Amino acid sequence: MKNTWKKVSAAMVTAGVLGSLVIPQQASAHGYVSKPASRSALCSSAFGSLNKECGGVAFEPQSLEAPKGFPAKGPADGKIASAGGLFGGILDQQTTNRWHKTTMTGGENTFTWSYTAAHNTSQWTYYITKKGWNPNQPLTRASFEKLTTIKHDGSAASTKLSHKVSLPKDRSGYYVILAVWDVADTSNAFYSTIDINLVNNGTLPPKTDEPHPPTKKPSSDQPTGVHSMKTTSSSVSLMWSGVKNADHYAIYRGTGAKLKKVSTTKDPAFLDKGLAAKTTYHYQIAAVSKAGKEGAKSSLFTVKTKEKVATHLKEWSAKAAYKKGDRVTYKGKTYEATKDYEGHGDSNWIHSSLWKVIA
């Protein structure tokens, strides 16, 4: 049966600049607010590691990706700062002195993003915690009020690095800003939280202690900084900071609360293979001495494997007819049709209104 079709606007993004959907936790993705520095950025050594004991996000501050559509959709309440619990959900820890704060004044301020992959973009939206919010409770949708939305034309995000955003003048003290970057041609967005001391009417921000992680300082025999360098549908490439005088390391893995020892390795890195696709795994690493004594296990690291993509898919054709759910390959990417349609030879028709990138 012949499918109906709609005329495609010349303004649609061409296949040559089509963005890709990359699974969170991959070191090749994507972007974060760098000025004022976001919570994740301040975990990174590039920003002085002013936020401590952050886990793997210290190596990937740009990878906080979750479904877009906030506040109707997106990460669940209590998991907003971590974009849905990524990197073990450490960024969701919330107290008055857990995170380093940047002093800002009410009125117009400039927010600048840094991108490692400047996806095609529809908009950025900024929120701030409400007057009277509780800084010792997890962040929820009810914690925030909207500041502004910066619309974009669907082109790469790098064409609009900075935004002018007006902060409230009716409050002072500790507040959290949430910046959400909506990608135009995938179903995802990137979430950045910024901790600030807001100053108005010359009122100095209250004196606060240095950032104080709730966890104890790692012991000298405890591996730290566990993270994934690359994640596929069947493997996770782990890396961590080594322990002095360790003979080898024990790898613990699980999909639930209980982790089992699955392997050992001499080096502070391990490629875990043979995993199930689209599955969440939890890891801990323990250093083992020459005498065989295990030290304290690392902090829990959580990662999700990619969806497995079929290898027998046909190449997309501009003249073929497709039904919703059909999958094709094109220029090294895998696409899934979002609706029924019939092609008429236009090579620009592999765009976001008809197809979504799945790998």
Rounded mean pLDDT is 84
| Contiguous uncertain segments of 5+ residues | 1-29
Task: Report the end-to-end length measured between terminal Cα atoms.
Answer: 29 Å
Name the CATH architecture of the largest domain: Distorted Sandwich
Count of discrete alpha- or pi-helical segments spanning 4 or more residues: 0
Helix content: under 10%
Shape: flat
C-alpha Rg (nearest Å):
23 Å
Structural class: mainly beta
* CATH class category label of the largest domain: Mainly Beta
CATH superfamily descriptor of the largest domain: chitin-binding protein cbp21
The percent range for strand residues is: 35-45%
Largest sheet: 6 strands, mixed
Report the strand count: 21
Kindly report the CATH topology of the largest domain.
Coagulation Factor XIII, Chain A, domain 1
Question: How many separate structural domains?
Answer: 3
H/E series, N to C? EEEEEEEEEEEEEEEEEEEEE
Descriptive overview:
It is a single chain. This protein is 0% helix and 35% strand. The chain is mostly beta strands and 359 residues long. The protein has three domains: 18-199, Coagulation Factor XIII, Chain A, domain 1 (Distorted Sandwich), CATH 2.70.50; 224-304, Sandwich (Immunoglobulin-like), CATH 2.60.40.10; 310-357, Seminal Fluid Protein  PDC-109 (Domain B), CATH 2.10.10. The strands form six sheets. Strands 2, 3, 5, 6, 8 and 9 form a six-stranded mixed β-sheet that branches. The chain has a four-stranded antiparallel β-sheet with strand order 13-12-15-16, with no helix packed on it. Strand 18 (327-330) and strand 19 (333-337) form a beta hairpin. It is flat, with a radius of gyration of 23 Å. It starts with 30 loop residues before the first strand and ends with a strand. Residues 1-29 have low confidence and may be disordered.
